[in-house]
Amino acid sequence: MTTEAARRLEVHNVTKTFGGTKVLSGLSLVVDAGEIHGLVGENGSGKSTLVKILTGYHTCNSDAVIAVDGRRVGVPVRWEEVHAAGVSVVHQDLGLIDHLSVAENIGVGGYQTSSFLRKINWRSQNAVAASALARVHSGARPTALVASLSASQRAEVAIARALRDHLPGSGLIILDEATRSLSRDELARFHTTLRLVVDQGTSVLLVSHNLEEVLSLTDHVTVLRDGVVVGSALTTREVTEQEVARRMLGRDVATLAQRPTAPQSMPMVAVRGLAGDAVRSVDLTVGKGEVLGITGLPGSGFESIPYLLAAARPARAGSIQIDGDTIDLATASVRRCTGAGIALVPERRERDGLAFDLSLRDNLSLPMLGAKGRWWFVSKRWQQINAEQAGERFGIQPKDPNLLIRQFSGGNQQKALMAKWLSVGPKLLILHEPTQAVDVGARQDILRQIHSVADTGVSILLVSVETMDLAEACDRVLVYSGSGTLDEIKTNDPDEILDLVYSRSVAS
To answer: Is the pTM value of this prediction over 0.85?
Structure first.
């Protein structure tokens, strides 16, 4: 049984209400010293709210109990106090600033300064950075720009920063969806780094949508549903993904119905000689109503294909023919491609896909302003109707088109991003990692929508490293080897796709 001394973090009786909605109800959570503890739940279940309470961003009920290493922290939490007690956070996408050095990134929030002029003492700052990097066995240099680092080195820098102010063997690192942008190989190296840290006695609270990652990495997992703990400190080696998902949803996870094989027809889309970034002379076709998947090893270049086809990045060569209209991609503009019926749903919704300071209604209206608006007047009526219809079709919650897009959960933001580009009636819909960082329920909703859209005759290109998505959603999958060749596979087995990815990488 866990002793009081072994408890790194204790949270008891935490309740939080926004307006009339209770988002956390009497929540309790215990993280032991030297363990990795998972925290999972659907979008809107209260995970992010709890993290924000623990870091002082949100307040909670005054009779809540929060303690670190047996010492109670004041409620409402002040970040300075809880950080001094040993709590650090690594946010989504690691929270690093590319144009700053490693030492500058590690120093954010606590630079080493001279005693008189309060200027940054760079010699001391570099020494602090080097010491923090050594704790995670990182080879990154303190003076290197973060933009020059590999993904695994960036992860090491983020963890080093979190450890900066804490003695070896102490502290709690909260990873708030911090692994969402890492590839499978990068994720494995990141997990190795975490194990190094935890073996020294530091604890980790891992907040993630990736149930495979949670069950393979953590010692225990706590499950939230609608702000209530429905699984407390479950031993991960004793539970399955299906059981955790069932607790999250309150029901069994529905199996996505297998699509009938798309009827063979003349290609709606034909790509010839596409080249750019790391892509070399790619040819492919997509039939009307077909869902075509593309995957490969991260870094092989396949990730650039969506952006080259939509002219979001300049192509060196190549053309795309869509419904008889041929576009020279070496000279094409985004306007030319969208005008031809190409719609791109990018991977990074927060950076490239949505305007977070605009409402849901405004985001959904943006692609249609040119067609339905006038330079002197844009009617609100059609925007409202469009937003309400999209919200109903995709099940976007809450059902308020006037809320800022940042107020929606990640899964609902992703649904909004798809709805935004489907509103223009595309002929080719390009999706890059459409289920990244969404919960199991939202994932099923998105994959069903992909099938539904394809059934209307839209050609779909699904580009992803998620072999489960590819196996469930696609009629066929192309594996890019990095040498310019594409190998085709038709299967419902994600392992077969993964085997082909790695076998082709070895061959190339």
So the answer is: no
